[in-house]
Amino acid sequence: MIRLAGVSYDYLQDGREHAALSGIDLAIHDGKWLTVLGANGSGKTTLAMLLNGLLQPQKGCIDVDGYDPSDPDAVWEVRRRVAYIFQNPENQLVATTIEEDVAFGPENLGLPREEIYRRVANVLRVVGMEGYREHEPHLLSGGQKQKVAIAGALAMEPRYLIMDEATSMLDPISREEILAAVADLHRERGIGIINISHFIEEALLGDEILVLSQGKVALQGNTGDVLAHGEALEALGIGLPPIIKLGHALKKRGYLDATLPLTVEEMVNALCRSK
Known about the structure:
By secondary structure, this protein is of the alpha/beta class. It is 38% helix and 23% strand. The protein contains ten helices and nine strands. The strands form two sheets. It has a six-stranded mixed β-sheet with strand order 5-6-7-3-8-9, sandwiched between helices. Helix 3 crosses helix 4, helix 3 (98-108) runs parallel beside helix 5 (142-154) and helix 5 (142-154) packs parallel to helix 6. It is globular. The relative contact order is 0.14.
């Protein structure tokens, strides 16, 4: 489990301190999918970097499975457990072939060559890139590069995977492929997902939602409970998917019961029950 207690972080800009995060309390349970939403500047990336030990909290504390990311002796164990996928995959591709790139993390762990080979072959198969082992990363499409970045993170065999706007630069088809691959990993391997996104549709894949606004928690809870706050979400600049908007409109008119449908299938079933 990842726990944050009273975590705050300020940036220094123009000689003044600006709060990026203020007093964040959060528990991310093993195997759960947490979606983090918020407008630009709400603190989403700062939160992600704190979870991975790339930044250290100025107030409060963070615990990752019993390890403190601010402890220099523990930070590498934290980063092995909490893998990070950046918005731009170019920031994570470091080698001249895909095979070498995916092997980079396990090699730094000092694993035996046979284990490295096993992990590389396994994760490339998982993300559907097993036929590209000898390809040069810079020749790949954006979606393929992001798949390689995910493979490199998975080769570390993490317990949690942070996706920091990892789908925002992709075309719709590549975005759907990446999310499907991550959903399979979440379901089959029990990897915890922390998906930081502008796309509220991606929240429908997850268990819980955290909404940040100006560095503070605006909304937090199970996916269905948070999406039920339609007006509050729109006030925070988070547009609702059409099916959620329709659900809110029908509830106001008394056509639906207290449960908000989150998918087309749920909507059809709810309308059938209300007849």
